Input
Amino acid sequence: MAIVRQPTRAGVRDAAAKIAAILPSSPLFVAPVQGMPVAFKAESLQPVGAFKLRGAWHRLTALDEAQRTRGVVAFSSGNHAQGVAWAAKRLDMPATIVMPADAPRVKRDATLALGAEVVSYDRMTEDRTVIAARLAEARGATLVPSFDDPWIIEGQGSVGAESARQMELSGLGGPMHVVVPCGGGGLAAGIALALPEARITVVEPEGWDDMRRSLEASWIEPVGPNPPPTACDALQTMRVSPLTFEVLARRDAKGVAVSEAEVRAAQRWAAVKLRLVVEPGGAVALAALLAGKVAAEPGMLVILSGGNVDVEAYAKAIAPETAEAPAFPALSDSGA
Amino acid sequence: MAIVRQPTRAGVRDAAAKIAAILPSSPLFVAPVQGMPVAFKAESLQPVGAFKLRGAWHRLTALDEAQRTRGVVAFSSGNHAQGVAWAAKRLDMPATIVMPADAPRVKRDATLALGAEVVSYDRMTEDRTVIAARLAEARGATLVPSFDDPWIIEGQGSVGAESARQMELSGLGGPMHVVVPCGGGGLAAGIALALPEARITVVEPEGWDDMRRSLEASWIEPVGPNPPPTACDALQTMRVSPLTFEVLARRDAKGVAVSEAEVRAAQRWAAVKLRLVVEPGGAVALAALLAGKVAAEPGMLVILSGGNVDVEAYAKAIAPETAEAPAFPALSDSGA
Output
């Protein structure tokens, strides 16, 4: 897809206004960590269980009438699929989601329940980008990327604008330091645009910390060969986008990597202290804070980006560590 | 404690206004059950993880200056303890909580962290009501019951007033039928006062369904001898109060009992569908709905009253039923 423009702060403001018109703010909770009040933005409590409906809404509402009639195509096995399906349903547009044939049944069912058509492909023998591009061309539909798109980035950035308002209402002052989960970097880049004064720390699972390495190297480095298994399916992105990377690099964002055990500890803490179910990929920023890889400080905002879990894996993850190790899903394809 | 007055709807309105001035509304979520949109009020997301801070706030703010200086005494091993401690801390009043020596460490620590003094007693040899009454008399402090008190009932009723406003804003219309967990009945009676047009169904664990039996018999019947073990520690009340019973009986409220397995299924559903951690006692109303013991209908409001869990027991409860049966706490004392 041709990139027609860079994402902007004005675009984030526009997205935030559009989203505020249809969705109540997701809750912001304040809890002490290391003796410091820290703000937690619970995007896990969105109707589709993740922030992804924000970018999808901003992108789909930017389509003209003719484009709306022809619909949208996206590839994703997870939260982006549901975000696009949710936005398309509200706009009464056809949506087609390309999903691996072995995607978790619960995610497939949730996408179907939102009225989207699901096209399956074989992860081993077919390339979903080719399938999606062909579908889009055949139908004249618009392809909606999960992060490599200025509208998607601006839409996700509305999390930053909304959190800033909530923190000020809570008497915490504006966000000074945002700690945010990172797959392709759409959420982190959008928040960076929304909050020009804040420091940004992106958090990834160990072995999948390509944004961290890219920021250190000052050019985009992909995930290495044979990355380790991770429970953070939402963050398994093989390569970030120039759009997201440039925003974060210009802002001198830092990267941190967390272990699988640190992620499980964060999920457990969120369950007990915040009474929230947070998925592994949604818990990495909290994991970095609790592990002491990021120090708590005044004006800290931690994003809990998603809460869609398989209940069996979740029960194992939050059980004390002496229990059987959680079963991790096999390496899935990137980008959603 | 001498009952000086009946709880009233005007009192609930007053309580709701006082509580709105210090606490944001707890989130209300809408999710389909049996094809019907049902509203879920997440009191589990309150700062102390349960609705109990509402009644405590209404009660403590009704004390005069001299009473405030002498402080409050409560007995509870759970959520009421934290509610009273939270309210006392905000009002800069001394609070003493009488807790069994074998209370879960996490609840004791949470109460201490809120600045309360904790007095331990031996569950087998001592009577906490006597200890609390003696402490209150010695200090000139006010005893704060967990449900047998008009202010407590009115304060808890603010859940109903708040939910009604949120449901109307969501386009669902006002609550027509409220399904609510019941221990001593303070929450259910308060909501009944707040919503004079709504039908009320109270839900209790099997064997602890004394409010159900009392409503059927038209007089108060206590829990029978040797009640079964239950994971719903928040609902282990041996006898309801005339104050709560009268309100519910006058409103022709109905009672339903749920099994331990139905409670676990509800906790699992809340984790996956709502991404919320709900404690066993907080999940009984949802359990009744999911088990088909209450039919979904337009204008239905289900209260999720608390989310304070021991993470190990919680992990076992939400794991698929083939797993080891959850360990239930021993029969605890009543009323909190």
